[in-house]
Amino acid sequence: MWKRCVWLVVLAAFSAVCAVDLDSVTACLVREYNLFAQKPHVTPTGDVLECSGFVKVNSCWGRCDSSEIADYKIPFKISNHPVCTYSRVQKRRVRLPNCHPEHPDPYYVVYDALACSCRYCNSKYTSCETLNG
């Protein structure tokens, strides 16, 4: 009986993970990404001490409902385009795996999303170049 219960719990957890079809998600979710980070150091003599590697980070991913309403004033529309962005983050310091032995600081700071939500783009903390933010 005990082995069956464990197997059912493992199967249920596996099914829950596999049930998310990333091509059809209509929500804003936290998702794990591999970030390639580089932190070269130039010595006083001009030598470059390389430091880089892939780091797993949690970021926001997904879709948000948007709309436009006709308006009589230029630009003749009222836009409502929220973006999927983080609502809570946590700062984390990681050691990059491929660093020169004499590199003075092989650590890199990343920010993990703890929660994501659909919000208007704010250029204080998000890259909004194509969203008139």
From TrEMBL:
GO terms classed as biological process: G protein-coupled receptor signaling pathway
Family: Belongs to the glycoprotein hormones subunit beta family.
Swiss-Prot/TrEMBL keywords: Disulfide bond, Secreted
Keyword Disulfide bond: yes
Organism from which the protein derives: Magallana gigas
GO cellular component, as recorded: cytoplasm; extracellular space
UniProt entry tagged with the keyword Transcription: no
CDD domains: GHB_like
Domain Glycoprotein hormone subunit beta: start-end pairs: 50-130
Protein name: Glycoprotein hormone beta-5
Gene Ontology MF terms in the entry: hormone activity
Subcellular location: Secreted
Superkingdom of origin organism: Eukaryota
InterPro entries: Cystine-knot_cytokine, Glyco_hormone_CN, Gonadotropin_bsu
Chief site of localization: secreted
Pfam families, per database record: Cys_knot
